[in-house]
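User: Could you check the structure of this?
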Amino acid sequence: MPEEPTLRVYYDAVCPTCRRDRRRYERMAGEASAVEWVDVTANQARLRERGIDPNDALHSLHVEDEHGRLCDGLDAYLLLMRRVPRLRPLAWLIGLPLINPALAVAYRHGVRRRLRRQGRR
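Assistant: Sure, the predicted structure tokens are below.
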């Protein structure tokens, strides 16, 4: 089976939940996962080169596809989930027009709350 093109995931490696989510994704994706994980805290210059504000990167997961296109927030999660066969049905559900906007609001609220609780906002 040909390997999928690499995705570049800009994530908050300081966040314990984010690190746990990364490990969970890597377990589900297995060896076929072609993902480069980039810590937003340690790579702020790299973020700026890609046009990503480091503060925005703390507030929202960003994923860059093999063509250099960036997506963030729930759309970034959907891009990752669609790469893992076990997660594709969930990605389809989350992508539905009535569900996606509500989950996007909940995601943003949860991130703000997490950063406040960690004293990083």
